[in-house]
Amino acid sequence: MCAKQIKHIAIAGNIGAGKTTLATKLAQHFNWKVHYEDVENNPYLADFYNDMLRWSFNLQIYFLNSRFNQLLEIRRGEDVVVQDRTIYEDARIFAPNLYHMGLMTERDFNNYTTLFDTICSQVGPPDLLIYLRASLPVLVKQIEKRGRGYEENLRLDYLKRLNEYYENWITDYKEGPLLIIKVDEVNFADKPEDLGKVISKVDAELNGLF
């Protein structure tokens, strides 16, 4: 019954917070479809981590286009979809962080922001946003655990600034229902009982949407 009332669940969180893992496990439990972030096939990601100034705009445009297409597909389809990272994070977290760190020019940032605003006028927010709040040590531990080569050059100050942007964004998030999961306190990846707690919270939020 719940699945008929919603179409779009989105998971937000910093690099290494566990978005993909949680999206997969929720999809398995609720029989949802998953739209993953395009990481493995992203033609800009490795170049970006090696030279952020050169490739930041290209990378952000690629992600923006990818997530816009996901949202259009969700709108056209009949399935309930859980989305790994939101379109808001591109524009509210990553692009402004790159700009303020001097890794994206003002011209590119303004161009990007204008395009984002145009896209957002054509799509709506998720029916439920799940934010994975994680401390810097937990993020670093989980990034090291998954061992993606292109993430080896990630700087701690970069992750820290992203976390600050995330917290500011979530504090002001008013677009729709929001569920915050404290990753430091639950290990939904490895402990079934912790996953059960998260599923119960998600279920409670969804039951309140109709």
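the 2nd protein, sequnce then structure:
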Amino acid sequence: MPQFIKKKKLKELFRLTADAFQSKMPELVGLSFDECLSKYALFTKEQAESYLQRGRPIEEVKDRLYQNSNIFGQNLNKSLHIRTWKEVSEALKVIYKIIGIELQYGNHGEIIIKECFFSKYYSDEVCKLISSLDEGLAFGLSGGGRLCFSQRITEGSSCCKGSFEGRNSK
């Protein structure tokens, strides 16, 4: 995938995340995709930690993250002309690979993530908060699929495990 397309989509993700945290998006002009991705990891880490430290109810920001990324996922679904559950699964795998997450599928909708770029930046609490983005993206991309994690690298596990199940598995 061309760098300019990856960077454009990452900027969209940046915007929706900044909106969810009700904060200003950092300047990205002149940065490469890899530099933007590192900046995004630091930005989300700092925003989540700040939110958690203030002791505010996290459900508000989790809901905004989910809703914003749900719309992002719906737009990706339309632009990619996704029709089947297999296409949804393949698209999610490619999207994750672009941002440094190696997603594999096991049996019965199980997902396994052995490498995650963000695990170098996130604590377990931050990861749980930011995973609302993953849940919303998967829901929007699939038209109703549910992504849930049962184990995380940020908890000290060797990999993340979870499930990705379709509402009606298109």
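Strands lie at 101-105, 110-116, 146-151, 160-165. Helices lie at 3-20, 33-53, 58-80, 85-98, 124-142.
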